[in-house]
């Protein structure tokens, strides 16, 4: 009874038309739909050379910190964890393509978090979001979806890298079978509106991989254990190159993607929860933005990529979640999951790869909202969508989109439609390609 009284005083349940049972169940539902990140994030960041167990623990800690702030400060029902797309950019662009260390990438994430803390207090974050053309915002989401799906196919071995192009991988194998089984399960369960479809697909295909010998049980068949230490990756920031152009480029890409991902997610989920005011704005939205900014900052110190609000929070909202008690319940589930690393460690790459493909599919939904009837809008969006997976880089996709948008508007006499901020960013990106030619 005292617990219910505390929740009512803290989260104002009756005022928001909800109750304790509904909120807790909504939090569990949100966890079920987003817990795949505990398998996927260590798999992605380990490709950057980071210890998978340490990333697992760091992801949980950073997620819990962000959700505690979301619960007690913002009093909103949103779950937070390491953002998909941002973790891919961390590993496959910054580390593997640019040749930077994972310590360099963590430093960029840390600085991003500090900047976002400042911007969340000043309202500049919303202003930046409003300055970027809507079609580019949607195109970035679509492009990241294709990029993530491509990474999934590569990680599963379904697609391989040939001498000059991508080529079909070894589909006729046990590993390929695990991938396709996982993919089918996830799609079928999603079609049937089963909560936690991605997690169930990962778990079911993991069992199958054990039967086929693709995966093996941990020593002693232990499922529960002490959480892995974060010592190998915690507080490993590298400030030696913070004033370099590479740091600026990486930092801006993190900022850009995180701004649109978080604000877009907050708007979409809040709409489903009827939390927007008459002007279409989220009341106290800056508090929610501060939660992921602080989560990101602490996450970088602990050893994980950018923390952001998850679109899977919509599942909890659909179950009736309306207050911070939902976020608190999700955080509690994440804390419990810390003791099940052996279970997560046996998950095969093919299972998490299937989850990447499905998440990529989800991110493609905004393509129908892009204005393809106006060539000055369609071409920059197309270039963003085309170049991101083609160059295997989120940063390059954004660069081509910005440059083409500003350029085509200016050359067609519609330059006034472009904000000064977009022109400034386009010039910076253009110089990035031109300057090396003359040096």
TrEMBL record:
Cellular compartment(s): Cell membrane
Molecular-function GO terms, alphabetical: purine nucleobase transmembrane transporter activity
InterPro entries named in the record: Azg-like, Azg-like_bact_archaea, NCS2
Keyword Cell membrane: yes
Membrane topology: Multi-pass membrane protein
A GO CC annotation given for this chain: plasma membrane
Chain ranges passing through the membrane: 24-46, 52-73, 104-128, 140-159, 171-190, 197-215, 247-269, 289-311, 323-344, 351-372, 378-406, 418-435
Pfam families reported in the protein's UniProt record: Xan_ur_permease
Key words, A-Z: Cell membrane, Membrane, Transmembrane, Transmembrane helix, Transport
Similarity remark: Belongs to the nucleobase:cation symporter-2 (NCS2) (TC 2.A.40) family. Azg-like subfamily.
Protein name: Guanine permease
Source organism: Anaerococcus octavius
